[in-house]
Amino acid sequence: MVGKNCFAIASDRRLGVQLQTIATDFQRISKIHDRLFIGLSGLATDSQTLYQRLVFRHKLYQLREERDMKPETFASLVSALLYEKRFGPYFCQPVIAGLSDEDKPFICTMDSIGAKELAKDFVVAGTAGESLYGACEAMFKPDMEPDELFETVSQALLSSVDRDCLSGWGGHVYIV
Amino acid sequence: MESIQAKQGLVGPNDPIQRTQLPYVTGTSVVALKYKDGILMAADMGGSYGSTIRYKSVERIKPIGKHSLLGASGEISDFQELLRNLDELILYDNMWDDGNSLGPKELHSYLTRVMYNRRNKFDPLWNSLVLGGVKNGQKYLGMVSMIGVNFEDSHVATGFGNHLARPILRDEWHENLSYEDGVKLLEKCMRVLLYRDRSAVNKLQIAKITEEGTTISQPYALKTFWGFTAFQNPTAGAEGSW
Amino acid sequence: MTKQHPAWSPYDNNGGTCVAIAGADYCVTAADTRMSTGYSILSRDYSKIIKLADKCVMASSGFQADVKALQKLLAARHLIYQHQHNKQMSCPAMGQLLSNTLYYKRFFPYYSFNVLGGLDNEGKGCVYTYDAVGSYERVGYSSQGSGSTLIMPFLDNQLKSPSPLLLPAQDAVTPLSEAEAVDLVKTCFASATERDIYTGDKLEIVVLNKDGIHREYMELRKD
Predict the structure, then answer these.
(1) Pairing state of beta strands A15-17 and B38-44?
(2) Count of Cβ atoms closer than 10 Å to residue C160 Cβ
(3) Which CDD domains match (chain B) (predicted)?
(4) CB B149 to CB C63 under 8 A?
(5) Burial of B189 by CB count in 10 Å (0-12 exposed, 13-18 middle, 19+ buried)?
(6) How far apart are alpha carbons A139 and A149 in whole angstroms?
(7) Which of A136, B24, B29, B94 is the residue whose CA sits 20 to 30 A from A24?
(8) What are φ and ψ of residue B191, in 5° steps?
(9) Residue B147 is nearest to which of C12, C35, C42, comparing CB atoms?
């Protein structure tokens, strides 16, 4: 979710195989660099594989360019990697959030074959997607300061995962 | 002496019963609207056998009783069977000779139940019906689908009409349409349907119902113009593989 | 390739969203007035809320023909009840009747998603929420239909009802005033309409309280 010169990215902590919970402290959100995060919901092996490939590609980029990737560039990279597997996709939906050099927030989500969805306000993904849409649509305000953004995102996340059997066990919230 | 066959028709007691048929001869859209003095309804006279236009003089709008008009799209024979049932209903209602008669509201409600009960038997009447009428100064216009979905509105259209005609009606319809403007509006809808619905034919009837009674027009054709550049070279504006 | 031929289904989904909120001495029931089939809109002004008894209204979404059949059946059963008992059915009684009626068609269900709103025998607001085959529960607030997944978490967040597992049982009615509840319902639908294509056109709100029944409307997005 986007705020004023900041963004928030949040997810729940449950890892499960259908109805069985495997772990309750799962990290779905990973850092690419200090101002760029990615959340990967879906099949955990695919998420981790994709994450490793993304980190690898980002490191190559850093070595060649001697700078960090812009969020927009990174989103295109994720999209391209996903579309490579068009007919045998990674079963995961990414959420990408980053801050540009001018502190302009960028958020984006994709389906499992890399169709980008850019939004100005908020993006959601995963099993509680529809609940999150409802909660965020009702709670979002433009240009929130970090504290208020944290509260809004946390409330939206908690009330949404409570209505989804496959999500829960608390959440991680990152404010950048 | 009645034989088992006579009692049960061609289906024997142990034969599997077959219900869901296919539509054979079908009619396309019906469009209707409320206007100042009553209801106007339009339908073309095509009867399609699959994608072949097999019949060209099918009457798809009929008066029911004194106060109502019924228009149908879908399976023509189902519609005609329904008309026979309704004629009987009106007759039996008339035989009470109590001065009461079924109005459009009652008929619409009745049709709703007929369609819904047939779907419950998994043997639907394959039609979308439009019922319009005027009784005691009250205009009435409603629709029923093959599975019983029903509603009232100030303008309705079945099939393709819901996609092509209703947007025009939403734009241009108003409560105080005169008869002339109403007919013009319906003709505009029917012309769009004629251009874009392949099973439409250029021979239609427009029916009017008011407090005074029902009139159904003689079949007539619309003036058409096929010289639009978009018709002559439809792919001109479309870039890409097509 | 086999030849294509027309097929039919005895069910359709005509969409729509319903919400009900119970307060200490009132009940707010609301639904949008759009009726759709697939990607087309059939009507922009179809009321999904009916009055079943003096202190009981039902809002229903799902398959319109089934909903209509259900409404007619309940109206008929209520008429018989009035003849036999010379009084209006209470909301809890209607709640049980609706459940039984839905379960009666367990193996060819009414494809309808209902919320029942009203006042109980003490004049307190009550809301019953159902699935298509008659499972039901008395709650403080509920939402059903195509936009329910968008609205429900927001209601949870705003109304935080006590867990039904608490002992002794806690009152489920919401702490809001009547005007606040009406405002909340409006907010819910404004949000749901943004994301659910089956919700829109107009919102119909029915408020039940000790003064009787009162209807109001709010315009929603039409696209």
Answers:
(1) unpaired
(2) 12
(3) proteasome_beta_type_4
(4) yes
(5) buried
(6) 10
(7) A136
(8) -70, -45
(9) C12
Q: Averaged over A38-49, what is the pLDDT?
A: 95
User: By CA distance, what is C37's nearest residue in B?
Assistant: B149
Are residues B61 and B44 in contact, defined by beta-carbon separation less than 8 angstroms? Answer: no
Residues of C in Cβ contact (< 8 Å) with B145: 12, 37, 65
- Record: contact C10-B150, CB cut-off 8 A: no
Q: Do B23 and C37 touch (CB under 8 A)?
A: no
Closest partner CB to C157 (pick from A130, A135, A137): A135
pLDDT digits (tens, 9 = 90+) for C65-122: 999 999 999 999 999 999 999 999 999 999 999 999 999 999 999 999 999 999 999 9
Rounded distance, CA B177 to CA B34, Å? 8
C169 pLDDT band, cuts 50/70/90, is: confident
Return d(Cα B104, Cα A16) in angstroms, integer. 58
Query: In whole angstroms, what separates CA C177 from the centre of its chain?
Result: 20
Measure in Å the smallest separation between the Cα of A65 and chain C Cα atoms. Answer: 41
Task: Determine whether the interchain pair C149/A135 forms a contact, defined as Cβ–Cβ distance below 8 Å.
Answer: no
The pLDDT score that the predictor gives to residue C94 is: 98
Asked if B147 is an interface residue toward chain C (Cβ–Cβ < 8 A), one would say yes
pLDDT tens column, A123-176: 999 999 999 999 999 999 999 999 999 999 999 999 999 999 999 999 999 999
* CATH number of the structural domain spanning residue C50: 3.60.20.10
Instruction: Give the distance from residue C142's alpha carbon to the nearest chain A alpha carbon, in angstroms.
Output: 12
> What average pLDDT does the segment B175-182 reach?
97
Of A138, A158, A162, the CB nearest to C187: A138
Task: Kindly list the domain boundaries of chain B, sorted by start residue.
Answer: 27-220
Phi-psi region of A168 (alpha: psi -120 to 50; beta: other; left: phi over 0): left
The domain in which residue C72 lies consists of: 17-218
The CATH class of B27-220 is alpha beta
Burial class, B63, CB count within 10 angstroms (exposed 0-12 / middle 13-18 / buried 19+): middle
Q: Do A163 and C149 touch (CB under 8 A)?
A: yes
Helix axes C148-159, C178-195, angle to 10 degrees: 150
Please tell me the distance in Å from B208's CA to the nearest CA on chain C.
23
Would you tell me which residues 172-211 of chain C have a C-beta closer than 8 angstroms to some C-beta of chain A?
Answer: 187-188, 191-192, 194-195
Q: What is the rounded distance in angstroms from the CA atom of residue C155 to the CA atom of residue C149?
A: 11
| pLDDT band, residue B9 (cuts 50/70/90) | low
Tokens of A38: 């990615």
Is B20 a catalytic site residue? Answer: yes
CA atoms within 13 A on the CB side of A58: 22
**Min Cα–Cα distance to chain B from C14, Å:** 9
A2-175: what CATH class? alpha beta
Average the pLDDT over B23-36 and give the result: 97
